[in-house]
Amino acid sequence: MGVAEVDRIRARRLRVIVDRPWADVMLDDAVAAVRRRVFESGTFTLGAARGDPERRALRVEALARAAVGHSGAIETLALHDRANPDLWLWLGRTRIEEAWTIKPDVKARAVQAQRLQAFQAAMERARQPLFTAAALVPSDPVPWESIMWLYLGLDRPRQEKDAVWFETVRRYPTLFPANVARLMTLSPAWGGSAQEMLEFARQAVSRAPDGDPMAALLPLAHFEQVAAERSPMSRGGWFSDGALREIVSHAGRWLGGDSHPRSIEAHNLFGAAFYLADLRRPARGHLTRTGGRVSRLPWSYLGDPAQQFERACGRLRLVPA
C-alpha cells in the first residue's frame, strides 16, 4: 500500500506499517511467522540472503526485533545445528535487541546503576554467538556490523570500536547499516563530536556511487546533531540554512533509486528532513515513496514514529493509495 496526495484538507487517518521499512515480501512473511513463534521461517529467510550483505543485514535486524523475548528458542536451534552461521548471527543480534529494551533511562537515577548492570550483562551475552558466526563465515561483514552495535552498547574503548569498524569495512565498505553504526559511534550522544560525525558522513557519501542511499547519512547526521543539542523537541527550527543546503544537495545526488534494500529508510530520512524544513514538494515525493512504511529513524527524534509520520502526512495531505 502506498500513499498519494489529495486536495482535501481533511483526510482519513493514515494507516501506516511501523518498523518495516523494506520492500521484501519474504521478510514480511518471516517476521509475521517469527511473531507467531515459527522460528524456522526466520532461519530460512536469513539463509536465503547469504552472499548479499545488504539484504542479510536488513533481514537479521528485522528478524531479531521480531524475536525479542524469545532468544531462548533461537539458542535451542543453534545448539542443535552448531555449524549454521545464520542461527548464531540471529541469536547474537536478538540478544542485542533484547538488551536495548532494558537500557536504563538516564532520568531514573535511583535504579540506574542496577539497571545499567543488567543491561550490560544482557548485551554481553551477544558476544559469543556473534563471534561464532564471524568465525564460521570469515568473509561475512554482517556479524561484524552487529558487533559494532554490541561494542556501542557496552561502551567499549574507542580503539576497540575502531578495530571492529575496520573488520567490517574491509569486508564490505558500503554496508549501509555499518555506516549508520559508525556514525552513531562518532556522534555527540555516544562520546564523539558533531564535527567528527559530520565529516565521517560527508566522506562516506562522497565515496558512494550515485543512486546509493548512503546519501541519507547526511540528514541522519544533522538529525543526530540537533537531537544532542536541543530540548525539548519541536517542529520548528531543526536545521540551519547551511545544514539544509547540504541535505538538499545530497538528496539530488542520491537520485532516489529504489532497488537498494535500505531505500525506504532513505526516503523516510529525506522526507522527514524536508517536512521539518517546510519544503513540501520534496517532502511529499519522498514520503510517498515510503509506501506508508515507517522507519524508527528519524521519526523517533520527534516522538512516537508512527504518530509523527502520520502527523507529517496529514499536514502534507497524503493518504493511503
Provide a descriptive summary of the structure in words.
The protein has 321 residues and is mostly helical. Strands 1-4 form a two-stranded antiparallel sheet. It has a two-stranded parallel ribbon with strand order 2-3. It is built from 17 helices and 4 strands. The protein starts with a strand and ends with a strand.
How confident overall, as mean pLDDT?
A: 90
What shape does the CA trace take? globular
Number of helices: 17
Task: Report the end-to-end length measured between terminal Cα atoms.
Answer: 6 Å
Q: In what range is the share of β-strand residues?
A: under 5%
Largest sheet: 2 strands, antiparallel
**Which percent bin holds the helix content?**
55-70%
Radius of gyration: 19 Å
Counting helices, strands and paired strands, the structural category is mainly alpha
Low-confidence stretches: 6-13
- What is the total tally of β strands? 4
* Run of helices and strands: EEHHHHHHHHHHHHHHHEHHE
Strand order of the largest sheet: 1-4
